[in-house]
Amino acid sequence: MNLTDRVVVITGGAGGIGAALARRFAAEGAAAVVLADLDARATAAVAATVGPVARGVAVDAADEGQVRDLVADTERRYGRIDLFCANAGVATGVGIEAPDADWDRAWRVNVLAHVYAARAVLPGMLARGGGHLMHTCSAAGVLTAVGDAPYTATKHAAVGLAEWLAVTYRDQGIRVSALCPQGVDTPMLADGLATGHLAARVIAASGPVLTPDQVADAAVAGLAEERFLILPHPEVAGYALRRAQDPDGWQAGLRKLVRRLRAADPPPA
Ligand SMILES: NC(=O)c1ccc[n+]([C@@H]2O[C@H](COP(=O)([O-])OP(=O)(O)OC[C@H]3O[C@@H](n4cnc5c(N)ncnc54)[C@H](O)[C@@H]3O)[C@@H](O)[C@H]2O)c1
């Protein structure tokens, strides 16, 4: 897909990767870019910086009724949706001890929101004979996010769902991409790095921390090639291959990295 004259929706568009995608899609000549995020004022402010093709709306991507309304309203205004980017996501920064409410929120935002988006947008795309879904998953969805159990489990589920959608709908003209960055300099990672959180330190030690704009560049290239797996950090392909070929060796390497980071900077007593 090239972005010229396309109508695009981006959830989680009020900052970070979502805002960078919006800027890049507008620069590529998109006809309309609808940013959907929880906070109306913040989303409208980001839309204003993107330019006249952008619109910011308050939507909880984990609420199916709101997602249905977002899709219906966008199709009414612009006649179609060519690309839906299910990009909203949440991390918890904790292990299995995360309260059930945090597990539930991660499941709803990182996975169910993608189901709701697909349910809402596919009927129109199928009727028109084509469309593209891009789900922002994570390298955590093909590897593991040390220190964040709900994030790891739900991002794996998100990649699985994206693959299911790709296999199921490809022959009906629907393309699906799973955008799987490793570390990106957004509040999600920056907050963890600032506090020295182990999860953030492992990410930073595993590859370069990219800017959101670099991720948007990779996304545009991946969409142009209609690639399923979009890896802004190409080294993730090598890690995933190693993990598939030798899971025990892969886990041993990761544990070694964690031990090294803990020894270099032990957590406060
Ligand atoms: N930052 C990283 O290192 C990194 C790495 C891999 C994947 N990701 C993924 O990239 C995506 C974007 O994250 P980011 O790094 O830009 O972080 P971010 O925190 O800057 O952006 C996430 C956005 O999602 C919004 N959001 C959260 N819950 C929502 C909901 N229920 N409905 C609508 N919007 C909601 C937030 O308000 C926020 O604007 C996420 O899916 C994240 O998991 C991030």
TrEMBL record:
Secretion signal span: none
Domain of life: Bacteria
A family per Pfam: adh_short
Keyword S-adenosyl-L-methionine belongs to the record: no
Keywords: Oxidoreductase
Gene3D superfamilies: NAD(P)-binding Rossmann-like Domain
Record-linked InterPro entries: KR_dom (IPR057326), NAD(P)-bd_dom_sf (IPR036291), Sc_DH/Rdtase_CS (IPR020904), SDR_fam (IPR002347)
Family (UniProt): Belongs to the short-chain dehydrogenases/reductases (SDR) family.
Occurrences of domain Ketoreductase (ranges): 6-182
Name assigned to this protein: SDR family oxidoreductase
Source organism per UniProt: Micromonospora humidisoli
